[in-house]
Amino acid sequence: MVTPVFVRNASAVAVPEDYQSGIVVDVLPQADRSTVSQGYGKAFTRIGVPTTTAFDFLLFATAVYTADKTVLRAGARDSWTRQFSTASPVRSTDAWGPATGALTEALTFLTGDEWHLDWYQGANRPWGMGRIRRPPFDAVCLFSGGLDSLCGAIDLLEDPRRLRVLLIGHHDSTLIVPVQRTLAGALARHYGPLRVHFVDVFVRPSGPRARQRYPLPTTRESTTRSRSLLFIALGLAAASARGQSIPLYVPENGFIALNAPMVAARRGSCSTRTTHPYFLDRLSSALASAGIVNPIINPYQELTKGEVVAHCRNQEMLGRLIHRTISCAHPEQGRYDSLPYGNCGYCFPCIIRRASIQAAGLSDATPYHHDICTEMSVLQNEARGSDARAVFHALRSFARDGRSLDRALLSAGPIPEPALLRALQRVLNQGLAELHKLLWTNASAEVRRFASL
User: Fold this and answer.
1) How far is the C-alpha of 247 from the C-alpha of 236, rounded, in Å?
2) What are phi and psi of 217, to 5 degrees?
């Protein structure tokens, strides 16, 4: 079944009858009428006004994110692949027409769903803006509060050109905000407030409200793949406010960006692709066709996480802040065990994090909730132990058959260039070596037997 998705930036726009039974994404000046809670006006008051094309893309990304979060995969015919048909307002349909093909390819690859994209004429604007401040900045860096984003910010600020950096944070939960602000505040104190600007933006689907014309479903999908699209759209909107030459940095290590499936069940769309080179390539191509030419750069595409940490340009600063970063895939999960917001220790990003810090030779004071190297109860738990068991399987499989490594790399998605393919083969090998070292040096005898290492 195809889910229609219609986007409005003004309540005067009539929703076509064919879309009224689907997802209506209302980003309106009246908060109690909107179906998306967002802080775009507040954010752009602190940054500057984005170009109309960049804001058009941000509205589109908001719609994709909202649909992704509110339509359950369980309702799809294969319990995974959903079908969407979107209609989004843009200033120039002629500009977005040429971008549709590559953008559809990027979205299909990113979320694993089927997308049909349409555009209609609309004059979009961020509502709720106050007196605009335009801080000078030379680069925009996505700032999630994770370890890679901290390294990305430090490396930009250590650049000999003395860059002024705008850090953009996105959140749909208030719990990550103190983490982002603590890290950004430490950077501002060290490098100076004139060189570090941090803006956090709240975006999430709204619950039902009395004055909403088309309330969203109250269900929420947990496998949200489109968050990176929204995050990038926020960064590009911010960069466009300063100029089309301002680059957007998306710091993510190549091992995670590639996200080669550790087991066969994770091949295809079941493996996340939020910063995969193919996704960024297709997205950049689409946006350039529409007139958004700000460079999108992943500076760590050809590095493992251990190498990102080891090569960070200010090791002293990183060492002081590393334990405050959150790399976890589900940092709120601990509340079910009366544990604080933080790194669980058993998800794939947490395991990679531990391995990377050890590989870089740094002390890891991170308070992980669980330790896969010693806690058999976690490894034997069907849900909590699944990522660790996948890592064990991969280490055994790739040790037996080196060719399976190349198959895993290619099954994660197309690689745009032969030279990049060779670089990512090295990244995959080195990333697995970092994981093996973590387990070989820290795992108990019981865990080693369980993992067959």
Assistant:
1) 8
2) -60, 150
